[in-house]
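Obj: model holo form, ligand = D-xylitol-5-phosphate.
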Amino acid sequence: MVKARSIPMNPPHRIAPSLLSADFARLGEEVRAIEAASADWVHFDVMDNHYVPALTVGPLVCRALRPHTRLPIDVHLMVRPVDALIVEFAEAGANSISFHPEASDHVDRSLQLIRDRGCWAGLAFNPATPLHWLDHQMHRLDLILLMSVNPGFGGQRFLGSTLAKLAQVRARIDAHQRNDGGAIVLQVDGGIRVDNIAEVARAGADCFVAGSSVFGEPDTDGGYRGVIGRMRAALSRGFVEPA
Ligand code: DX5
Ligand code: ZN
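Output (holo structure tokens):
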């Protein structure tokens, strides 16, 4: 069944709250709450205690959450190996699946496996992972995820070195599209907050994963809707030409 290749390209800036910082005892409610708060995607972090030390959730939880939201479920695999879990997550209702290229024995095959199952395919880069993994893969990609912290935990500080890397990837995506390549979303993951989101967008990102800054927001400041609204306002301000 082809379901996910039609993820809408609008709005141009997508906000993807990461469930890693949600209340795991109330995940269904949390997913409904971020949809009601106008989030664009649900970011679903999968850690396996091998590729990263932490252990989170698997396809059973993705399947359980699927009926709770119409938002795309964006699965970020921090696991090794990747292929068996790609198939399980696609069957569990994921819309996009990203993996770290060094965790796959055969990157082309893993990317193709994702698309064959009707999902968007993504490659994820740690801060120290070189971009040469993109060299022969642009035509197989729907999503590029740049980690702006080292993977494994929520609540870390944004690494400033990501800005230059984002600009390099943005240039590669733009060149790819000028050569009639397909659309590729440029996602940034880690340490995104209201006060840095516009700068990160100006560097070239168009999809923003935010865990602790969304789920840590107190209800007194408007809760999830309040913080997502402030992120969108910062994004629009960040793109308005000064008068
Ligand atoms: C980290 C995860 C992130 C994490 C981001 O390994 O991939 O998605 O949830 O959390 P914050 O936004 O708190 O840095
Ligand atoms: Zn993530």
